[in-house]
Amino acid sequence: MQSSKAATERRQRFDQYVGVYHQDMYRYAAWLSRDKAIAEDVVQESLLRAWKSLDSLREESSAKQWLLTIVRRENARYFERKRLETVDIDNLTASQAALLAEQPNEELDDMRQAIYELDDDYREPLVLQVLMGYSTNEIAEQMELKQGAVLTRLHRARAKLKEQMARQ
Amino acid sequence: MNCDEYRVAIAADPSFDGGAGHLTECAACQSYRAEMQALDQTISRALSLDVPALQMPELPEVSELSAVEADNVIALRKRSWSSPTWSPQIWLATAATVVVAALLGVRLIGTAIEHESLADEIIAHLDHEPFALRVTDVAVTDERLRSVVPADVAEVQRNIGLITYAQSCIINGHDVPHLVIQGERGPITILLMPEEMLGEPQPLMGESIDGVILPVGNGSIAIIGEKEEALEKFEQQILKTVMWTT
Predict the structure, then answer these.
(1) Which site from A97, A146, B206, B229 is most exposed, i.e. has the minimal number of CB atoms within 10 Å?
(2) Domain B118-244 classified CATH 3.40.1000?
């Protein structure tokens, strides 16, 4: 009876985190992998990992960062397993192309393509800052970088996007 | 703060609220700030993809979870900060860093994370270099191997296996030769740690990997492979073909 109650509480805790952070997990996975179908796979695997490891999360305030760390690792594992090659922007699969054609808005389409073409090193900190609301300190911890390196990458990412958008 | 410093700061974070003194006097930077904030709004909208409905995977019962699985993900350290601090000194230092990096083309990459144990750090390191674990039949050159494993650190014989990756890495503050050989089930990582003395072997367990840190003389060697890999055979082979020269 006692263990059943504990199991129920564990599941409720898990569902609560998933309810709050599922969207962030998916968007992070989508921009890391640049592929909607892969993002869904990565999120599924991440949820399973998170469920199995839930007891290692001791601070609720770290839940978002903990889940995004799992997504980051699952994405890396996915690409290890699949040995995917570099994506050619002119030769995308339907699932990759779907990421770029999300809404019929020319400016957003252009921006999405510019973000898509950014190097991973620049795209990831930008997603963490703009979409996830991470501070540069938090990005540095997530990406295992120094804060100066994060600021450099963010500065360069925006400079590249600005230049790219000016060309459109 | 001058225009260059302010613009570096605002481009790294358009919500940057420092440099008020400069901003009130500089119309060009006011305009630049507005431009970067508008750019960020577009970035934010572009990044906000529609999210498909949640498909919850089938979750195992709690009673089915093993202790090993429960420990699979290393718990995050408690954050040591509460909010970002943007003092003028930090921004000046940052701006200087960015400018120098831009001029020199230097990528500033470091390892700011502290790990609770050597095993934690090794597993985190492997996560950080997934590209090392390629299945390939192309061996690193002798020159590359010599540069990563200096003669005054260790001697590695080629019959250790097909060495397909060699990189000098920092583990626990020391330069460590990081090698990968091809096993039967996938790549096998070998970390030569002449400065990490251990009393006894330590197991390494990750989500899809198994390994061990073996005490060898005054140092140790970490050997990590896929869970399905029969590592014992490779452990013997590695111990026979690596010799400390320190």
Answers:
(1) A97
(2) yes
